[in-house]
């Protein structure tokens, strides 16, 4: 069973579009939005079964040049 997570991404100034392009090229996202507020991007993705969520986010998102900080929200049963 995959795990659905939402990741808010704060980018270094002037890098939001480059970060978004890098995420799209990795083909790991379900949905990707630009947002207002403290974070610049909102990413919805499904972490593959058996993968550690923290390691997956670190290895696939946090390492992208321009990513300053992430905030991950785990999801549970849908109603």
**Sheet with the most strands, sense and barrel status:** 4 strands, antiparallel
How does the helix and strand content classify structurally?
Answer: alpha+beta
Straight-line N-to-C gap: 17 Å
Kindly report the average pLDDT value.
95
Task: Extract low-pLDDT stretches.
Answer: none
What is the global morphology?
A: globular
SSE pattern: EHEEHE
Strand order of the largest sheet: 2-3-1-4
> What share of residues is helical?
25-40%
The percent range for strand residues is 35-45%
Radius of gyration: 12 Å
**DSSP strand count:** 4
Helix segment tally: 2
Mind explaining what this structure looks like?
This protein is an alpha+beta fold and 79 residues long. The chain contains 2 helices and 4 strands; from the N terminus they run βαββαβ. The protein has helices at residues 16-26, 53-62; strands at residues 3-11, 29-34, 41-47, 67-74. Strands 2-3-1-4 form a 4-stranded antiparallel β-sheet, covered by helices on one side. Strand 2 (29-34) and strand 3 (41-47) form a beta hairpin. The longest helix is centred in the first third of the chain and has 11 residues, at 16-26. It starts with a strand and ends in a 5-residue tail after the last strand.
């Amino acid at each position: 069973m995959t795990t659905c997570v939402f990741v808010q991404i704060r980018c270094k100034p002037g890098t939001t579009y480059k970060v978004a392009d890098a995420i799209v090229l990795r083909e790991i996202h379900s949905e990707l939005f630009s947002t207002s507020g403290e974070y610049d991007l909102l990413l919805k993705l499904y972490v593959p079964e058996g993968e550690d969520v923290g390691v997956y986010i670190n290895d696939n998102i946090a390492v992208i040049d321009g990513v300053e900080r992430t905030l991950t929200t785990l999801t549970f049963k849908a109603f």
